[in-house]
Amino acid sequence: MSDRPRLLYLITEDWYFRLHWIRLAQAARDAGFEVLLAMRVQEHDPEISRQGFKLFPINLLRRSVNPMREFLAVVELARLYRAQKPDLVYHVAIKPILYGSIAARLADVPSVINVFAGLGYAYTSDELRAKLLRLFLKFGLSAACKSAGSLAVFQNEEDQAQLVRDHVVLESQTRVIPGTGVDTDRFRPISNESSDHIILLPCRMLRDKGVGEFLEAARLVRRQKPGVRFVLAGRCDEDNPASIQSRQLHQWQEEGVIEWWGHRSDMPDVLGHATVVVLPSYREGLPVSLLEAAACGKPIIATDVPGCREVVRHRVNGLLIPPRNAIALADAIILLLENPELRQELGRRGRDIVVKEFSSTIVIRQTLALYHELLQKSRA
């Protein structure tokens, strides 16, 4: 076994790791950590393995509620942690936090970081199922996050305050780090904006991303400006209870209201074609799509909710609107369409803010410092 400190990431899906977390893992590897990955592998095994990481496929299903399957998932993780003896485990999102923390206790892992990448469906929906889930999570997460040697990391201060207020975490065991940052060399202003105005919503196809409001705003705007194109770019996420089915998206596209471009790996080019980028979400951790758009010099419109207002400063780099309000979204879109100078100024300031506050270089440096801090404490 290597003398390097062993860092294990527990993340539900390989596509999610590749999209948001691979740069952090690469930086940890380059900083001297032996990097281990535990996740469900569906699409990106060869690409991830080429990075020199040790990959352990696991069957941690996000929507499973089968008690025996869930029990076996915890047992599988505990066996993995015992066998690999990580010095530090890094759990991303709710289910890995719950199950990984139990496994870490059983395997006597000295240091645990629990990353809340947004609070998700349980905190954005008013459905009875969401309310019951929220009660369960308060109990389970409290047990997971208050153990010695653990630290909860939030992507915005409002999520941190929410869980401190709910007695889920102790404030002394929390930090705020804005995600994993944005590669500002890859995401940069380029001049390939479409001759047709394109209003872009880049996100997973979930109701709580405001896709319904985007659809209604498209209908409202196109009554005044019929040539404007409304584009959804992102994958379906059928394991999420808020998922919009592909057949529904195809139906909207056939009606001529929106275009659905699906998952795109060339997001800098996609963003380059956009006139305005929007995210009418109900709640976010820290919306990478908005950061990437701002890094590309695009004006952004978002809802005035946790996460989004960490990125958007009203009339500085974008516009903030009330959540669940298609009329306000349509009005903001029309305002920017009719004011090219305002669009340009918002985009310029947005790029400056991302470079100074949210670049991957800055954020990854903060995270690596946290890794070393916990390792030093565990060895003291």
What's a concise summary of this model?
This protein is 47% helix and 16% strand.
How would you sum up this structure, described in words?
With 380 residues, the chain is α/β, with parallel strands linked by helices. The protein folds into two domains: 6-181 and 360-379, Glycogen Phosphorylase B (Rossmann fold, 3-Layer(aba) Sandwich); 198-358, Glycogen Phosphorylase B (Rossmann fold), CATH 3.40.50. The protein is built from 15 helices and 13 strands. The strands form two sheets. The chain has a seven-stranded parallel sheet, sandwiched between helices. The chain starts with 5 loop residues before the first strand and ends with a helix. The model has no long low-confidence stretch (mean pLDDT 91).
Sum up the structure in keywords.
single chain; 380 residues; alpha/beta; Rossmann fold; seven-stranded parallel sheet; six-stranded parallel sheet
Using the coordinates shown, work out and report the CATH topology of the largest domain: Rossmann fold
How big a fraction of the residues is strand?
A: 15-25%
* Gross geometry: globular
Assembly form of the protein? single chain
Question: Helix and strand layout, with pairings?
Answer:
Blueprint: E1 6-13, H1 14-30, E2 34-40, H2 45-49, E3 54-57, H3 67-84, E4 88-92, H4 94-106, E5 111-116, H5 121-124, H6 128-145, E6 150-154, H7 157-165, E7 174-176, E8 198-202, H8 211-224, E9 229-233, H9 246-254, E10 259-260, H10 267-273, E11 276-279, H11 288-295, E12 300-303, H12 308-311, E13 318-321, H13 326-337, H14 340-358, H15 360-379
Parallel strand pairs: 1-2, 1-4, 2-3, 4-5, 5-6, 6-7, 8-9, 8-11, 9-10, 11-12, 12-13
Helix pairs in contact: 1-15, 3-4, 4-6, 8-13, 11-14
